[in-house]
């Protein structure tokens, strides 16, 4: 009986956090989250319409895990007006750019400014330079982005959805930044829970546009 009580006392605590991915189209947001959630990669992915929803659990330590409820938003300009619906009430955000496209880094800066102006003031933001497997075509230096991240209080990581490089490290770093002690009301004990009131009323994840032929790696 004592052993049974001890086992229950050591059950892992799971804390839920809403995470949103933002960035231009074709920077690899969907590929990044699919690599994280499913450990898969497709050279050509169809463009997301509206947003797609995923969940994944990240162990923080032996007794605590974070469950990310992930909204992968569309990068096309025509869907930009929908973004606030997805980052509203988000506790963390991943803003992605393509290291081979300097314009995508400038767009990422715009997303960061919008989040810092309109999202939760305590939101944890990670700036992510994707496609570092294409370093020979690099247009944005890691040093420049690290400096910007330091100046604006962001986490920074370069990743490759194609090879999986640093993808797990990225989400583990975000999980460790989350305020677990103040989120005990969101504890779950192994059950798959929904986003509840943080989930937008419009879910467009069921439909996708035709493939553009652009690699989203």
Mean pLDDT metric: 82
Look at the helices and sheets and give the structural class. Answer: alpha/beta
The backbone outline, from C-alpha atoms, is: globular
> Would you tell me which CATH topology applies?
Rossmann fold
The helix-strand sequence is: HEHEEHEHEHEHE
Total helical segments: 6
Give the CATH level 1 class: Alpha Beta
**Residues in β-strands, percent:** 15-25%
Number of strands: 7
Cα-atom radius of gyration: 18 Å
* Helicity level: 25-40%
End-to-end Cα distance, whole Å, is 52 Å
List segments where confidence is low: pLDDT < 50 over at least 5 consecutive residues: 1-8, 184-217
- Largest sheet report: 7 strands, mixed
GO molecular function: GTP binding; GTPase activity
Subcellular location: Cell membrane
Organism: Dimargaris cristalligena
Membrane topology: Lipid-anchor
